[in-house]
Amino acid sequence: MDYATPNPNALRDEEETTTPTVPASKATELRQAAAEKARVAAQGVQNKATQLKNAASEKAQQFKSYAGDKAVALKEEASQKAHEVKLAAADKYEQGKAKAKDVHASSEEYVRQHPTKCVLGAFGVGLLIGLLARRR
């Protein structure tokens, strides 16, 4: 038994006639509309990228300005603290110098008032140092 179709081209003819065909002008219009939508979308993406770039640049500039301001403020504060420390050190130095002069003057006055005690004390200290040095 042969199950083959008596006319094999009959099915192909039917398939070709049932497929809807789009006219060439309609296809061109669809292609142009799609291309236009793609151009509009690409332009929108490009505009958004430009906006993001500008916003990032502006934020970077703001950060740079802020960091510069902070650096200047820190420098001024450090300079002020250094100046304060320098003044305090100079004040302490002057106080120490004045105290040393007072001690020198008072010890000189004591030696003038008690010369015998001072000479005997110096002799005793010298003798003690001599004995210690000789033992070694």
Description:
InterPro entries: YqjD/ElaB (IPR010279). This is YqjD family protein. It comes from Rubritalea tangerina. The protein is an all-alpha fold and 136 residues long. The chain has one domain. The chain is built from 3 helices and no strands. The mean pLDDT is 87.
Number of separate helices: 3
Distance between the termini: 139 Å
Strand content: under 5%
Number of domains: 1
Mean pLDDT: 87
Protein name: YqjD family protein
Region (Disordered): 1-35
Keywords:
single chain; 136 residues
Topology:
Layout: H1 8-18, H2 24-113, H3 115-135
Short description:
With 136 residues, this protein is mainly alpha-helical. It is 90% helix and 0% strand. The protein is rod-shaped and about 150 Å long.
